[in-house]
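User: Structure with fe (ii) ion, tokens only please.
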Amino acid sequence: MGSIPPNQGPDPSLVYRPEGHPEAAKDKGSFRNYTHAQFRSFSYKRMAVLEAVDMLDRLVDESDPDVDFPNSFHAFQTAEGIRQAHPNKDWFHLVGLLHDLGKVLALAGEPQWAVVGDTFPVGCRPQASVVFHDSTFQDNPDLQDPRYSSDLGMYQPHCGLENVLMSWGHDEYMYQVMKFNNFSLPPEAFYMIRFHSFYPWHTGGDYRHLCSEQDLAMLPWVQEFNKFDLYTKCPDLPDVGQLRPYYQGLIDKYCPGVLSW
Ligand SMILES: [Fe+2]
Ligand SMILES: [Fe+2]
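Assistant:
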């Protein structure tokens, strides 16, 4: 206690886009939506990892064409696929279980469009590989604003993805939860979770002009994770009760106890 939580730096959205600050918004109307604030303060709920997994029993992801069963099964399927292929990397197994837990947002009143689906950088021109690119952005005012509609937009070349403001969703939220609660997982684990829905980058091959050397070094890890996220989806559902003790052991090792969400 008493140490500064790691997530207390300035919100990049305010650094880059000061017109979105609430003080400026008094005059200019509402530029940005601040309903995500309660989730960035981790005051939503206190619960252990497996309680969050159990919450996803109640969630079917509307954006996923490959899954029509609760997301809790997808968590175990992904984890077990990784465990089979990488038996000696127990932290990676846990990434499989954790990666979509940010979707609890959809059970906390957030609309699914703000929780699931692909992610992409905001404040620059959306690249062609963003899913539904043509229909999604046609009414976006940023594309009429020269500051935000070039390839670089509000960024410097190769600034690094850690300095890029991504569209909000379950990836960024879960990454912030992991940081706030001091998960003792390796950097690769944080990276996989933070960018697993950034398909325009890890699969589409776009946005390389924003990447640092570190981003490119981490890319193969994100792509390795993606194989299991995608291809372990199967209507033959696992015996979750039998798997829980193994994963509880990993949770006790890397992210024990009751966490702040
Ligand atoms: Fe996901
Ligand atoms: Fe997933």
